[in-house]
Amino acid sequence: MQIWEPHALGETTVVHAGGVEVAVAGTTGVTVTPVAEGVWLIDAPEATGVQWKVPCVNTAAFWTPGSGTRWVPPIWNAPMSARLTMGAPVVSLVGTAGANVCTAALAESVAPVSFTGGLIEETGEFVFTLQGDGLRVRIDLSDRLYSAALAGVAEWWQQGRHLPPTPRQARLPVYSTWYSMHQEVTEEAVELQARLSKGLGCETIIVDDGWQTADRARGYAFCGDWEPNKEAFPDIASHVRRVQSNGMAYLLWYALPFVGKHNAAFERFEGRFLRYLDHMDAAVLDPRHPEVREFLVGRLAQAVELWGMDGLKIDFVDRFATPGGDPAPADGADCAEVDEGVRRLLHDLDARLRRTRPEVLIEHRQPYTSPGLWPYANMVRATDCPLSPQENRQRTIDLRLTAGPVAVHSDMILWHPDEPAEQVAVHLINALFSVPQLSVDLAAQRPDQLAAVGFWLGIFRRHLDALQLGVLEPAQPEHGYPLVRAYDGETTIIARYAPLAVDVPGTGEVLVANADPDPRVVLYGEGEARAEVFDCGGSLVRADRLRFDAGACLVEVPMGGLLKLRRD
């Protein structure tokens, strides 16, 4: 079998998954098992790489978990990497109308792996190349929706694992201090925003960077000792109890890998760094050293054990990975690989926190989204994309497609003080299929802005099961998901981000959120339905009876507004 340059694998064994020839490098002990219609598992415990090709017919996109562009790449495209601390080992070639062409995934692994997907210009075929040490590959060639194929990968990653259940609290709206306050956090400011956000429908507050330092230079020189800034938080335990007495859960931010040059821990652990970051005024600790892990676990655990926090926002786990390759471990390390040190660190932290709070809340963030981290986090947030609702939409949907049991959170939502209420609603609708995190000064908002926030947070809460736990069907990944649908057994919720027609199911309640400036929503369906149209603040605009006699009808829904349809 030919191996397509420039991704030569060397001597190979050829096996078959359906009608596809798969070249497996570096092994002869390969088994191929059909597990579902059009789905195969290839077990090659001694392999160093696998490669196959499929005809590029009716293809529209190449989906990856990295939230980049979705165009079909050429074969000379640079490879992607995935490891415990960065990325997830899955890709999908998507056809027209969202049909799966080929979805490929690897069993979760601590060790780094690489994926390359690309078009052979001479033949119009698409080549998949997966490389790593010891591979278990899942290849889905079924013609179901690509979103269903990716959901199948997430289910496969969960098989045989005993993961702690995700608390309901992890799926309820959140207020974050980062964009609204940055490092200017104090007990009084946090308590005010906690009260105001609770009244709008938030159930958790996350206090971000600034609690541990009086410095306001936005660097990390004062991270590492992790003690409260006494000027801003003179009695942090009492402060936490006051916030919780209002019914809010409380999470505290930690930049896990960093120890700044102005901390006592910097001198203590010098020689046990992975590298020093000049632009951050901080070093990255090496988790392969047991004394480093013990120190970090103790520092973070005091937030829950001594101060009464409900959980932690654990930031920058991806920074444990060193660009260009991890350095060799120094004397005293008890494992060779950095990612194994990270796994041991997170395992020990999780075990200790759960002794005090069994349903502890832990937030991780893109790009550290590996299924290998599922035991240690029940919330994962889109990476920072301030005031970019379209990017927030794409990132949260990308996360949802393979997040498994973990609750997906939006990046913190903010807007300019002069933002129209309709556009505030658009920001929220773009995060509709995730847990929204707000980060504006709620005391400075106009009544119409607050009405939009309260109305849409009510939709998030009331329809949580359909939005977060139902079947998710995002259309056209090559265009950033301009139409997204989610449904459970009772409710279908559709978000429209472009002037596209909407197919209305024949049963159950249907909600259509309009985030596009064009209010003319074309509906296709059958029979009749009662329709109610609400503006961005939840006020009823009109109530009509719709007939789909000609198969389609037109309803005007204002930007930021909502259409509710109910069958008799």
From TrEMBL:
Keyword Signal set for record: no
Protein keywords: Hydrolase
Gene3D superfamilies membership: Aldolase class I
KW Hydrolase (keyword) present: yes
InterPro entries: Aldolase_TIM (IPR013785), Alpha-glycosidase_related (IPR050985), GH (IPR017853), Glyco_hydro_36 (IPR002252)
GO molecular function, one term: hydrolase activity
Pfam families noted in UniProt: Melibiase
Domain of life: Bacteria
Name this polypeptide is given: Glycoside hydrolase family 36 protein
Biological source species: Nonomuraea roseola
